[in-house]
Amino acid sequence: MERINSVNDFNEAKQVIPGGVNSPVRAFRAVGGTPPFIKEAKGSYLVDEDGNRYIDFVQSWGPLLFGHADLDIQKAVEEAIKRGLSFGAPTTSETLLAKEIIALYEGIEKIRFTSSGTEATMSAIRLARGYTGRDDIIKFEGCYHGHSDALLVQAGSGLATFGNPSSPGVPQSFTKHTLLARYNDLESVRECFKKSSGVACVILEPIAGNMGLVPATQEFIQGLRKLCDEQGSVLIFDEVMSGFRASFGGAQALYGVIPDMATFGKVIGGGMPVGAFGGRSDIMACLSPEGAVYQAGTLSGNPVAMAAGIASIRKIKQGGEVLFSRLESLALRLMEGFKKCAQKHQIPLQTTVKGSMFGFFFNHAPVSNFEEALQSDTALFAKFHQAMLERGVYLACSQFETGFICASMDESLVDEVIAKIDEALEEIGRG
Ligand code: PLP
């Protein structure tokens, strides 16, 4: 597969943009080679600047539940654009999207929109601190909540890939209130509580998607709920990735545990830049202008982004549980097929599926936390990624990411990919 234009485009981009990209993982450093520069996309497929076509399991890192350039979402955006791009003043579209999300997520009584998931989690934490009057927060190794300073401590995917536990430029004093616990390990959380004089909140991805796909156990989530209740700390589910992806009602519906606050992003913007944080009204009442905790955004609640979000959520509601079970059965079919190929080629493989999300590790043992994820064979992953890209399959370019099924995929497409997996593993086996 020729990628001459992409190579040239990448070189040109590197002259003016650090690493040639606006988000590090896109540079393909973890897998080598040149990232395809994308010209256009439709449904399940991406097309690069050389005209190569790829089946896309990244789907813009999650937002595109209905695939690329979905006609209903596009139409809603086109209509919104005609009325103006941004007003910096309230619109009814914000109330509409807020109502749609609140109706589907129990415990979310009020919500505020931001322009990214990073802002959503950063603001949720500030609010939890303002509400409780406490400084410390507990986060988990391998969970990523965006790139704000206090959360950039052992944050999975991009950072793990670069072998960087944190980032230069983040003063030690900015993270001194961030306590780190081990995912799926309640004892480590109890230890954090013991060390702290006051924990404002516990934040986690209830289905972690940034150390590869690693769901929390039921016992862990229930234990966190109990600990937070005992300690008067706010429990925050970061559903930026799992919201409207893992199930109709996100992770909280799957576990049947209601957090005090939740953060959203990705799918709720239908491909436009949107994040949100919401929760119990007594907590949300602390937010300015009702309360004293400041948070703002010039483009927050942007009417075009809201229109895309509303169209996306309404389509999800129309699809209902049937949509999610179809997406999940495709993800299961893909992972089952992958497992059979791996067995045939004697390659150790662990797979996970949660709704439309799938994950796999080249690992001998099941993965339940970040440390175990790091035992995976990243060199083999890089080879596999390259071999699949050559065959026109676009997978997330790191072992520590999650794959996404979209509604325009079907069984025959999945079977086509499984055949390519078989070929790729055969080629790798030949050396
Ligand atoms: N939280 C989770 C769970 C995420 O997966 C991400 C991004 O991947 C974020 C927060 C940050 O969102 P954004 O990249 O929109 O800032």
Commentary on this structure:
It is a single chain. The chain has 431 residues and is of the alpha/beta class. The chain folds into 2 domains: 4-69 and 320-430, Aspartate Aminotransferase, domain 1 (Alpha-Beta Complex); 71-315, 3-Layer(aba) Sandwich (Aspartate Aminotransferase, domain 2). It is built from 14 helices and 16 strands. It has a 7-stranded mixed β-sheet with strand order 4-12-11-10-7-5-6, with helices on both faces. Helix 11 (303-344) packs across helix 14 (411-430). The longest helix is centred in the C-terminal third of the chain and has 42 residues, at 303-344. The protein starts with a helix and ends with a helix. The model is unreliable at 158-165 (pLDDT under 50). Residues 61, 116-118, 121, 144-146, 205, 209-210, 238, 240-241, 265, 275 line the site of pyridoxal-5'-phosphate.
- CATH homologous superfamily placement of the largest domain: Type I PLP-dependent aspartate aminotransferase-like (Major domain)
In one word, what is the shape? globular
CATH architect. name of the largest domain: 3-Layer(aba) Sandwich
Biggest sheet strand line-up: 4-12-11-10-7-5-6
Task: Spell out which ligands are present.
Answer: pyridoxal-5'-phosphate
**Number of discrete helical segments:** 14
Tell me roughly what share of residues is in helical segments: 40-55%
In the predicted model, the low-confidence regions spanning at least 5 consecutive residues are: 158-165
Structural class: alpha/beta
Quote the average pLDDT: 95
Rg to the nearest angstrom?
Answer: 21 Å
Question: How can the largest sheet be summarized?
Answer: 7 strands, mixed
What is the terminal-to-terminal distance? Answer: 19 Å
CATH domain class of the largest domain: Alpha Beta
User: How many structural domains are formed by the residues?
Assistant: 2
CATH fold-level assignment of the largest domain: Aspartate Aminotransferase, domain 2
Strand content: 15-25%
The number of distinct β-strands equals 16
Question: Helix and strand string, N-terminal first?
Answer: HEEEHHEHEHHEHEEEHEHEEHHEEHHEEH
